[in-house]
Amino acid sequence: MAAVQDTIREKVFISPGRYIQGAHAIQRAGHHIGRLGQSALIIADDFVWQMAGQALTKSLEASKVSFEYARFGGEASSHEIDRLVALGEQALVVVGFGGGKTLDTAKGVADRLGTPCAILPTTASTDAPTSALSVIYTDEGVFDSYRFYDHNPDLVLVDTHLIAQAPPRFLASGIADALATWVEARAVIRSGAANMAGGLPTLLGQTIGEKCEQVLFEQALLAWEANRAGVVTPALEAVVEANTLLSGLGFESGGLAAAHAIHNGFTALHGAIHELTHGEKVAYGTLTQLVLDQTPQVELERYLTLYIALGLPVTLEALKLAQATDNDLMRVAETALQEGESSHNLAYHLAPTDIVGAIRAVDAHAKAFMARQHHH
Ligand SMILES: [Zn+2]
């Protein structure tokens, strides 16, 4: 994710080896993981392991794949990756089973061990599963860096039945992460900057980003309602695919811009903002980029309408930053603008005060929009 470089001439598109999605797909996980290696290190947190560990181990046993369970400590940090690498020296395949941070950690462990990597998301809350990179945080949960790998996961297997049982807040977070995809990729295409694979976006990368957004505006609310009812519907299947596959390929081979950089800036603050999910902070970052991009009112309100319907944060109060000072927001802006950040992929130059102003403007626009809605 270099800044705009005159030297980039080649287009690059990368993707995982195999993507499988369907209700109860986990029952076939052993078959697919066994093709990668007959001895698995499974990384999952206690909650996921108790909820769904048995379905996975039953499937592995049926396919005669031996396994060892390694409990995930909760943060995708360098320390955590080191610790798990030491536990996995015998493993022939690393399996990440859980949410975005578990999966990012598993990718780091597989890379260090030099084994294939299987990714089994239990929520559709981020677009982490398919990419050849991890977002590394400090042990305290502050954004640290992106870690890039030689190749994408060999297998991504998504059980939509499991996802339908997860809290709808996770799906909404994934929708927010996926709505950022096209907003950021089109900015990268406009500026001629590099995607996450270090090349120019292909037509396929662009098409995936556009399709991702289209699916979400058409199906996201229906999928969220199905998730609230705990059922798998065609709309839920479509949105799980948009959140996971389309958003994952779309951001990696399309590129990131200001929305994720501003998200990373928010993680530098202390306090209750850390209670928000990745996608929730990305939602606010996306709105901030839309303001910076001088998005027409009708278009901005199209996004606001969907975020509000899904219970995503569109005000500073909802972001638990009602008391944020200009100094706090300057810290967010300066973090978002640090060297190597994707905010430099925009076609225009940004100063920290531009970002602070846009963050405050999102709050003002959202409040005015909600007041007008209320009035009607
Ligand atoms: Zn994201």
Helical percentage: 40-55%
Q: Termini distance?
A: 44 Å
Give the overall shape: globular
**Bound ions, cofactors and other small molecules, one mention each:** zinc ion
- The CATH architecture of the largest domain comes to Up-down Bundle
Structural class: alpha/beta
Please provide the count of β strands: 8
CATH uppermost class of the largest domain: Mainly Alpha
Low-confidence stretches: none
Task: Provide the gyration radius in Å.
Answer: 20 Å
Sketch the topology as an H/E string, one letter per element.
Answer: EHEHEHEHEEEEHHHHHHHHH
Main β-sheet: number of strands, strand sense, barrel status?
A: 6 strands, parallel
The CATH homologous superfamily of the largest domain: Dehydroquinate synthase-like - alpha domain
Strands of the biggest beta sheet: in what spatial order?
1-8-5-4-2-3
Count the domains: 2
Give the averaged pLDDT, no decimals: 96
Number of helices: 13
Instruction: Kindly report the CATH topology of the largest domain.
Output: Dehydroquinate synthase-like, alpha domain
What is the strand content?
Answer: 5-15%
What's the layout of helices and strands?
Layout lengths: L18 E4 L6 H6 L4 E6 L1 H17 L3 E6 L6 H10 L5 E6 L1 H14 L3 E5 L11 E5 L5 E6 L6 E5 H6 L2 H24 L11 H27 L4 H21 L3 H9 L11 H15 L4 H13 L16 H11 L15 H24 L1
Parallel strand pairs: 1-8, 2-3, 2-4, 4-5, 5-8
Antiparallel strand pairs: 6-7
Bound molecules: zinc ion.
